[in-house]
Design a protein that fits this description.
250 residues, six-stranded parallel beta sheet, three-stranded mixed beta sheet, 18% strand, alpha/beta
């Protein structure tokens, strides 16, 4: 009986120690861009802000037919955005990528050729990201540190590869779902009605209606929010992340 009591005390002590260690690991200030939530690595989806900043992001993977229109619209509304460019898009449309950079917008890595990262090893992912980085840097003179996986598809391997290579993985909290034949008014409704301070909005260039509805979107958002690039929105250190992927400053 005495042995059983002692053993039970040891078990309870071990459990308490494990809980304490887990709490410290989760809640301590971190500089990494990902966190374990329910055993899974989670990147940044949004940011808790005391101000009203939001970030508009474009994924560039298809064509560059609307880049000039988009850039002119962003200038008109004094909006600096973050463009996540696919490497082979950057090679094919290097002039457009250079325009994006020269107009003061931020550029992130969206893989080299939009492969499914969830089916790749960490080494393959890093090699692919490096290849895209090299293209972007050769055109703009700046090597990106932000990345977004193709189609936003990730698992622990994808996120750990990004983090191990010094990159910050950025998802999104508001999806315009603007690709294909998406209706302009529906794109507007999804982006404007669902946006709150600290949100990261995803839309695309090279679509049927995004460039056309963009002025209306920006006009509605500028009344409530301050546009920021991802680098201006996120915290670089001393933060945690909750189970929704919201980055919170410590």
């Amino acid at each position: 009986m005495i042995f059983a009591v002692i053993k039970l005390k040891h078990i309870i002590a071990a459990v308490l120690a494990l809980v304490l260690i887990s709490a410290v690991c989760f809640f301590a200030p971190r500089t990494a861009s990902v966190f374990l939530v329910n055993g899974r690595e989670v990147p940044i989806y949004s940011v808790e802000r005391a101000d009203n900043k939001i970030a508009l992001t474009f994924d560039c993977a298809w064509n560059d037919d609307d880049i000039d229109i988009i850039l002119d619209t962003l200038d008109k509304y004094n909006c600096k955005a973050t463009f996540f460019a696919v490497g082979d898009w950057a090679e094919k449309y290097s002039d457009s990528l250079k325009k994006i950079s020269e107009r003061g917008h931020e550029i992130g890595n969206h893989s080299y050729n939009h492969a499914d990262y969830t089916q790749m090893s960490a080494e393959e992912i890093i090699s692919d990201l490096d290849k895209c980085d090299a293209v972007i840097e050769s055109v703009t003179g700046t090597k990106p540190y932000l990345m977004r996986a193709p189609s936003g598809g990730y698992n622990d391997t994808v996120i750990r590869a990004a983090d191990a290579s010094g990159r910050v993985y950025i998802q999104w909290s508001v999806d315009g779902i603007d690709y294909g034949d998406a209706d302009a008014q529906e794109i507007y409704d999804r982006t404007v009605k669902n946006t709150q301070a600290g949100d990261i909005i995803l839309i695309h260039n090279g679509t049927k209606n995004t460039a056309n509805i963009l002025p209306k979107i920006l006009e509605a958002l500028e009344c409530k929010y301050e546009f920021a690039t991802i680098s201006e929105l996120i915290y670089k250190d001393n933060y945690i992340i909750d189970n929704t992927g919201k980055q919170i400053e410590k």
